[in-house]
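WARN retry 2 of 3 for item q-0093 after timeout on previous attempt; input resubmitted unchanged.
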Amino acid sequence: MYQTKKTFVKPDTLIYDLIIDNPNILLLIEHLDANPNVADLTITDYCILNNINKEVFILFANLYNGFNKIDISKLQKDDISQIVIFLKNCHKYYLKEKYPEIVNLISVLRESHKSKEINLILKFFDEYFDEVREHLEYEDSIVFPYIQNLILNTSNEKANSSFSVDEYREHHTDIEFKLTELNNLLLKHIKISGDIRILRKLVFNLFELEQDLFVHSLIEENVLIPLVKRIEND
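OK item q-0093 returned
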């Protein structure tokens, strides 16, 4: 777990410096399908080489650095496909990497601490991630295909679909906050001795997942939905 220095990202910021300040920027790069070899490139040069709108990159990087003021005035319809790619890759990261890692760590704790409290932790996280999985599947199967079709052929999609981004907004929930409750249980109420290494890895993973889900939700609610609504209105 790293503590970001809260660097406000600008076009002439060096990508390398940004990663050193906050290694979670590597997740942003990965989610954007960009090249991790950053050399001594500024954000402007890096985005040109990787065919990314620098305004999208700067906005997302600042969210990862804790600056939550969002201005989408410089973003256009053409940026939506890149944003959807980012969100889809986030989904893969949660489902194929973070969830298995966290479940494995809880299982290791359970093996050495035969207590009902650890079983409850595992049950709590499984039930929580069922909610997350349902949320992600809804976006992958309904929301993102609708958005992609809307971009390709706005008039036909509006005519042939009763779905709208307003329905998505009503369905949308913040899925990260229960992780705070889980960390509270682990650190305040579960007695664990001799396994602080596993506990530390588990808590770090939960914090990392919570932070990434928080950024993910901000992007969906305050970037993607308003951009799609703009197209529907047009």
